[in-house]
């Protein structure tokens, strides 16, 4: 492995869990007239999953 990818390996299960959580967050915002904060939600989800 090289320096760029060191520490960036995640299992397919972890990536699937992140995708599922992001899609659920997006679905919650889908029916809102003014869907705000989705980027913050996605960032929070990713930070929680990688820590």
Structure description:
The protein is an all-alpha fold and 51 residues long. The protein has two helices and no strands. It has helices at 12-30, 38-50. The chain is elongated, with a radius of gyration of 14 Å. The model has no long low-confidence stretch (mean pLDDT 83).
Question: What's the arrangement of secondary structure elements?
Answer:
Elements: H1 12-30, H2 38-50
What is Rg?
Answer: 14 Å
Biggest sheet, open or closed, and with what strands and sense? none
* Dominant shape: elongated
Poorly predicted runs of 5 or more residues: none
How would you briefly describe this protein structure?
With 51 residues, this protein is an all-alpha fold. The chain has 2 helices and no strands.
